[in-house]
Amino acid sequence: MTGITIALSKGRIFDETLPLLAAAGIVPVENPETSRKLIIGTNREDVRVVIVRATDVPTYVQYGAADLGVAGKDVLIEHGGEGLYQPLDLNIAKCRMMVAVPEGFDYARAVRQGARLKVASKYIKTAREHFAAKGVHVDLIKLYGSMELAPLAGLADAIVDLVSTGGTLKANKLVAVEDIMPISSRLVVNQAALKLKREALAQILDAFAGAVKKD
Ligand code: PRT
Ligand code: MG
To answer: What is the pLDDT of residue 9?
Structure first.
């Protein structure tokens, strides 16, 4: 494939990547929110955007179906990062990875007593590493979404999920009890493309680097 293919997920990552693309002189000609197209052209003949699920971005880039992409650190940890060059923290789509439990559940006490906790999450690897480092025994239950429901429905004692405003936890009578790590999205680049399309990619990487907002 000649030209440059960029993998993005629609929603916050697409929206927050737009200003960075603009800094590189790239303007998508359609909005994935309103268009059903999965391949979106840009003002540049040589650049196109493919719209994939957030969790699929690293896979498209790893196998070279896209030359570069934007993915959350949460997604990159679970993917493992094989075949990916990660040159830049874009400081977008920020949130925190947290442990949350139902209001009234004495998490500290359960941990102190060495209770075996049932933890539901989409982020199994992150959760496993977090609890292993603390020496807390957990049974992990893999979910693909709506983690907040799991404790309410009696599926789990706790969840590991992303929190930004805290509104979702609150609406479901859950409280955050541990802060695992801050999350932001990174630029990921296919390692072979980096060599084969060096000049075109360097221009985009430099423009992105110059446009990243510091805290
Ligand atoms: O939604 P979909 O199932 O299609 O996929 P996705 O959830 O993987 O994609 P998307 O677009 O929702 O998220 C893409 C990336 O945005 C994630 O991989 C994170 O790196 C980042 N991000 C930033 C977030 C949030 N903030 C966030 N708040 N991803 C998800 N959330 C969810 C969270 O899981 C929880 O359900 O929003 C809810 C909490 O939000 P608050 O504001 O109520 O705390
Ligand atoms: Mg989502």
So the answer is: 98
Asked if the model's pLDDT at residue 1 lies above 80, the reply is no
How close is the Cα of 196 to the center of ligand 2, in Å?
34
Question: Would the pTM count as exceeding 0.90?
Answer: yes
Contact indicator for 163, 123 with CB cutoff of 8 Å = no
Q: In the numeric block, which tokens belong to residue 67?
A: 């030359």
Rounded mean pLDDT of 78-95? 97
Residue ranges of the chain that CATH labels 3.40.190.10? 4-93+184-214, 95-182
DSSP assigned state of 167: H
State whether residue 87 is helix, strand or coil: strand
- 95-182 homologous superfamily: Periplasmic binding protein-like II (3.40.190.10)
Q: Residue 39, class by beta-carbon neighbours within 10 Å (0-12 exposed, 13-18 middle, 19+ buried)?
A: exposed
Task: Kindly report the number of other CB atoms within 10 A of residue 115's CB atom.
Answer: 14
The residues near 197 (Cβ < 8 Å, ≥ 6 apart) are 4, 67
The confidence score (pLDDT) of residue 215 equals 87
Mutate to test the pocket of ligand 1, among 164, 173, 184 (most ligand atoms within 8 A of CB): 164
- Measured in Å, residue 57 CA sits from the centre of ligand 2 at 14
Which SS3 state, helix, strand or coil, does residue 154 take? coil
CATH number of 4-93+184-214: 3.40.190.10
